[in-house]
């Protein structure tokens, strides 16, 4: 699930996809990511929910190790929470159980909606090659091995230049980045079918 964490089971992944697809849980995770921490009362006020509702969802997110309690801020019945670093790669859909596949597909459709809105924002907020909003589109020829090596280097670049919220230097802002690669369906190449 996350770096150094054990491999997740199909049931755990299904629960994860359902959690990440829950609109309120996504908003809670986004709030904690932006603000560093909150309790159920703060989240209820900021997200327009009851504190009982936010408290329930906080417990569920903690069970999945997506958030953790901040012990130095918590006391008595007041519990403060922060988001945990998280990284997950969805497995090959052909290896998924039906319920896991259905939950992953619902989450993927939600992500597409979010990413489409970000893509539009990037174009609207683009102020040239030195601005905060950047839009790049490229095409090239790669072998599958080269594509996978590119992905490893892409991840290494994110680790090299990115910062955790609490370690970010002055002037840093949260930046939403997306990357996808898909081969062109070019028919046959050297007698072998390519694409889909």
Automatic annotation (TrEMBL):
GO terms for molecular function: DNA-binding transcription factor activity. It holds the Pfam family HTH_20. InterPro entries: ArsR-like_HTH, HTH_ArsR_DNA-bd_dom, WH-like_DNA-bd_sf, WH_DNA-bd_sf. It comes from the Bacteria. Gene3D superfamilies: Winged helix-like DNA-binding domain superfamily/Winged helix DNA-binding domain. SMART domains: HTH_ARSR. SUPFAM superfamilies: Winged helix' DNA-binding domain. Residues 15-102 form the HTH arsR-type domain. This is Transcriptional regulator.
């Amino acid at each position: 699930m996350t770096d150094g964490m054990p491999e997740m089971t199909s049931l755990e992944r299904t629960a994860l996809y359902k959690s990440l697809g829950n609109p309120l849980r996504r908003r809670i995770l986004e709030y904690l990511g932006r603000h560093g921490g909150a309790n159920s009362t703060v989240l209820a006020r900021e997200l327009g929910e009851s504190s009982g509702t936010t408290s329930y969802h906080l417990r569920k997110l903690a069970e999945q190790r997506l958030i953790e309690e901040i012990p130095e801020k918590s006391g008595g019945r007041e519990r403060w929470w922060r988001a945990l670093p998280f990284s997950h790669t969805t497995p090959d859909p052909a290896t998924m159980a039906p319920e896991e596949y259905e939950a992953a597909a619902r989450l993927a459709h939600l992500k597409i909606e979010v990413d489409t809105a970000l893509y539009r924002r990037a174009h609207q907020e683009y102020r040239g090659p030195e601005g905060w909003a950047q839009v790049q589109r490229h095409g090239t020829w790669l072998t599958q091995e080269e594509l996978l090596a590119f992905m490893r280097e892409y991840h290494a670049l994110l680790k090299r230049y990115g910062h955790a919220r609490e370690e970010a230097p002055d002037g840093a802002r949260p930046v939403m980045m997306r990357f996808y690669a898909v081969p062109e369906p070019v028919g046959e190449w050297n007698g072998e079918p390519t694409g889909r």
